[in-house]
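User: two proteins, same treatment. go.

Assistant:
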Amino acid sequence: MAPHTIKEKHMNDIHVVRYFSSLITISKGKVVRITKPVISHCPLAGFFYKGLGKSRQLSPAGLKKEIKKVIEDKIYKFGFCTEDRMVWKDEAVVPYGASEIMAHGLKSRFIDSAVTVCDGVGTVVTALPQVVQGIGARMHAIIKTAYIPKVAIKLRRYGCYVLSDKGIIDQRAGVAEAIKKGCKKVAVTVSAFGKESLKNIRALESRFDISLTILVVCTTGAGRDRLSEIEKYADIVWTCHSGDVKDRLSGKAIKTMSSVSPVHILTEKGVKLIAGYSPNKFGMRKEAKRSVAARLIIQEML
């Protein structure tokens, strides 16, 4: 096979995700590249993945090896970034995860649609809490994804709207499509690491007279300008491993959940979205209940 043909083949199946501050490239169901992580420890990752529990003691090569194991485990068990991708789940995985909170919002009818991102398709609009959780429970921040027809077919069978057949990630366009379909109470996840304008997404709320709840994830490494935008336009923000987010938002949040990886609720709308939420009520999986992270977070709720 000619060299250019090999390149074209792989270009059709390239997925780039962000985890533990590394950029991980996946192709054909295999991890093909991992960049050097810029952090040495992530509390939540350490709680949920044994190999990352002592990440500060690992060499750079050893840390990359453990990151690779986490991603490979997700590929093997859940079809991450492949046509075998699982998209339906009705159990909590991360006690205060974005997908868990949005799924709760759909169940409580505080929102009527969720705009999220799924590896293999890009931006997705759905009204099913089980699909929100199925997509988000095992997913990391998606920087780039390739379109996988079989994943799109699964989602469409559940009545989901897939933004494009090119794996495009455009959360503003996703919100606009939800509005076109008659949705009035929309929640959307936006990666702080990405470049999408929160201001432009928020502008759709007043323009179309809807309720829009913006959840910002993957904040590790976000710059000063991005943090200013997040502070001004977001409703709920995940600290991840960003000391800057914690320092900047801790005193301004109406409510902060979890000391393991703080989740800052900045608006009354955010408070209403999480009202009545509990991992136990959601149906938290037994493995997560046994984890140290889950026990600590649940204890804070009691």
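Protein 2:
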Amino acid sequence: MFVSENYLFLAKGKDNGFQIFDISNIEKPVLLSTYTVPGYAESVFVKDNYLFLATDTEGLKIFDISNPKRPILLSSLEVSGSAESVFVSQNYAFLATGKGGFSVVDVSNPRNPKIAANLKVPYFTERVFVSGDYAFSAAKDTPDGKLTGTNLDIKNAGRLLVIKVLK
């Protein structure tokens, strides 16, 4: 789920895509649109007039939402692993990609996104958040070993990965 101004954007799970609600009257939210996509809609992020959707086996999908009643699919990009979560900062989309680790996608041209970097880690990355020069991710342990120097153990919750983002 993502909230921006008077709108709520909701990733809907298996073969359901996303929905956009007008929440200007919080007591009476209004469904404006539903967009169905194949795969499992895992995560949604909105920046400016663009909606970024992480869809496990379908990768990253970018939509023009300048008219929230009629989202328009602009592009799709396959990623290594499964797109579990997306966070956009400046001109880059950061993706937690399950067994694939991380992907960083240049989205400066939303109609033509390009992989800028991939980072393999010995964990299943599930969520990603970016703040300043760092990307943070929640990840599950795998039997492959440890990622040295960039992780902290979290009791009963897998791992927190901290990655320095080079500019």
